[in-house]
Every structure is written in C-alpha cells, then in structure tokens.
Structure prediction request, 156 residues.
Amino acid sequence: MKPVTEPRWLDERQARAWRGYRRMRALLDLQITRDLAADSGLSDADYDVLSNLSEVSPHRLRLTELAATMLWSKSRLSHHLTRMQQRGLVDREECPGDARGSMIVLTEAGLRAIEEAAPHHVESVRRNMIDLLTEEEIAALDTLSHRVVAHLSGEG
Prediction:
C-alpha cells in the first residue's frame, strides 16, 4: 500500500452517503438475520451454507470452494459445518482423488430446511429493501454493487 500524502476527504454529500450506507447495511443485516432466525431457526451462516449447496448439482461442494464462496477461512467453516452436521443439515464425504480434502453434502433434512426457509427469507428481503426501491434504483444498485465487487475481487 502506498503512503497517502494528503488525505482526499469526503465532501459533505459523499460523507452523508457513506454514513447512510453503513447504517443501512448494519440495520438491514440485523433485520434479515432476525427474520431468518424467527421464521426458520437458521442463522445467516446456516442459510449461506445451505443455499450455496442447494444451488449446485448434485448438492455438494469441496470445503475449500465453499469457504472461498462464503469468504470464510477453512477452519471457521469447518467448525460451523460440524455444528450443522450434528443437526443433520449437511454431511462430509472424502474427496475423490484427494485424501486430505472433503466434500460437503446437503442432506435431505438440509434441503428441506432451505426449501422451507427460502420463501420467508425472500419475503424479508423484499419487505425490508427491494420493495422500497424503484426499478431505476434497483438497476443502479445492481450496477454499483457489481462494480464494487469486481474491484474488490480483482476482476475489475
């Protein structure tokens, strides 16, 4: 990282937008997490694991792939998966051709859990964000979120 000689301070409008975004993100994450727990008994992390596994065929991913997708360390994810495995939501299998690797597999109970949770979760997302925006604002959000993600992930 190169040293900053003179800070490029945010102007009043930029600072207001940044503070508003931070507050919105914190409150939105809190509300969506509360709704998810109340509606399904799943945590945010549970939902992320289950949704990622449910969206691939045949409902299995290498632990390293899942950790990368979730932006978690393998160790942190492994600990969380142990708790989910104890609840019967996921299982682990040996990775073919890699004795040290493991495959994370969505169980029938895990598939039922995500299928039951998803309609309530998407309703919470709609109620707390999407339905508050115009079509133009959704298009702008799509553009800016993908631009920032591309920049931060090295794709931009």
Notes: The chain has a mean pLDDT of 94.
